[in-house]
């Protein structure tokens, strides 16, 4: 594709038909936005986190999983008409052929593959490259332009193996059997993924949930993701929570809510737990470096896998990844998109419901 593009000067470059507007990334020949930051006529939504899926759009296209999550979280405000597009189905919107392929971020997450005027552009949305039993794995798609996130776009961010982090948690529980262990997790994605990692590591005891985590766990269960026995922590007696594993939104871990727990060991599951100062600032005794975003090595590997001659980098640490891509002979630039949170607010701070994914 790239050779054909270079040999045909009459073919419009994607930067002529994909624009950065105040509402977000606008695909002009299709008349739609991808993950708009304010209500628009037509939106294509990559996944259900609130910095990508916002209420009030008149027409919404997304995977069935993402639409189910949006309905669960937004209720009547989810949008006007909702259209589900299964993975790898193709749909023509205006003059653009659109396809959604798995991004591996959370249940239903998708990359947006667009073809127009002989060029293929892939917008990654948020993604990771590791095994996650709660969602379909990331699929690299060869393209002319790859628009990638860079949440962890610095070489310092190299996530350790997930199993090792889970074993740290299980070891601490064995070491302090009388203490509750409370882990800060975001309600969508991280909560369910941590549960499946624990189950895969052989932990078959009940897992106790803060009330804010229960609705999406029920939704995941209804969509075929097996999570094992879950119990409500909000109504549990303090005695019942001795030695128990409790999951809660990050904000609740440091809140009065946690006082119901028995001398809790405070843990947090986030890619930002690689930065020990962040853990200390938040009173985290047991930092768990478990992320739902690609780390530095995975971002770099993805550029190799998709083979795009041009890369646009957005919402994250753009400069380092732009420099890396340029050093590999890839044309690269940062996109000035606004309205997308980094993982500090997504998984470590946030409101009562816990911010966004980490």
UniProtKB/TrEMBL annotation:
<dbReference type="InterPro" id="IPR036866">
    <property type="entry name" value="RibonucZ/Hydroxyglut_hydro"/>
</dbReference>
<keyword id="KW-0378">Hydrolase</keyword>
<dbReference type="GO" id="GO:0016874">
    <property type="term" value="F:ligase activity"/>
</dbReference>
<keyword id="KW-0540">Nuclease</keyword>
<keyword id="KW-0436">Ligase</keyword>
<dbReference type="InterPro" id="IPR050698">
    <property type="entry name" value="MBL"/>
</dbReference>
<keyword id="KW-0269">Exonuclease</keyword>
<protein>
    <submittedName>
        <fullName>Ligase-associated DNA damage response exonuclease</fullName>
        <ecNumber>3.1.-.-</ecNumber>
    </submittedName>
</protein>
<dbReference type="GO" id="GO:0004527">
    <property type="term" value="F:exonuclease activity"/>
</dbReference>
<dbReference type="InterPro" id="IPR026360">
    <property type="entry name" value="Xnuc_lig_assoc"/>
</dbReference>
<dbReference type="GO" id="GO:0004521">
    <property type="term" value="F:RNA endonuclease activity"/>
</dbReference>
């Amino acid at each position: 594709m790239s050779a054909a593009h270079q040999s045909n000067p009459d073919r419009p470059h994607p930067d002529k038909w994909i624009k950065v507007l105040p509402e977000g990334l606008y695909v002009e020949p299709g008349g739609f936005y991808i993950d708009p930051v304010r209500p628009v006529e037509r939106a294509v939504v990559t996944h259900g986190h609130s910095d990508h899926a916002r209420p009030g759009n008149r027409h919404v296209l997304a995977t069935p999983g993402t639409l189910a999550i949006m309905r669960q979280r937004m209720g009547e405000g989810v949008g006007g008409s909702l259209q589900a597009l299964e993975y790898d189905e193709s749909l023509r919107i205006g003059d653009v052929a659109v396809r959604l392929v798995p991004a591996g971020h959370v249940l239903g997450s998708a990359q947006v593959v667009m073809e127009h005027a002989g060029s293929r552009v892939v917008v990654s949305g948020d993604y990771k490259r590791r095994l996650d039993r709660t969602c379909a794995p990331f699929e690299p798609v060869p393209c002319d332009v790859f628009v990638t996130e860079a949440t962890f776009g610095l070489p310092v961010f190299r996530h350790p193996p997930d199993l090792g982090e889970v074993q740290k948690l299980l070891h601490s529980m064995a070491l302090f059997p009388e203490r509750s262990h409370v882990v800060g997790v975001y309600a969508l994605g991280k909560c369910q993924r941590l549960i499946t990692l624990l189950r895969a590591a052989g932990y078959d005891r009940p897992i106790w949930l803060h009330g804010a985590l229960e609705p999406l766990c029920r939704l995941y269960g209804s969509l075929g993701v097996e999570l094992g026995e879950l119990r409500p922590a909000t109504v549990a007696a303090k005695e019942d929570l001795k030695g128990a594993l409790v999951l809660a939104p990050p904000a609740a871990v440091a809140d009065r809510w946690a006082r119901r727990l028995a001398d809790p060991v405070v843990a947090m599951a986030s890619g930002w737990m690689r930065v020990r100062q962040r853990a200390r600032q938040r009173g985290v005794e047991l930092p768990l470096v478990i992320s739902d975003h690609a780390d530095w090595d995975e971002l770099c590997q993805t550029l190799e896998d998709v083979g795009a001659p041009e890369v646009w980098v957005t919402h994250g640490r753009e400069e380092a990844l732009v420099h890396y891509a340029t050093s590999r002979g890839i044309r690269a630039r940062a996109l000035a998109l606004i309205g997308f949170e980094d993982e500090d607010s997504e998984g470590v701070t946030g409101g009562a419901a816990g911010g966004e994914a980490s």
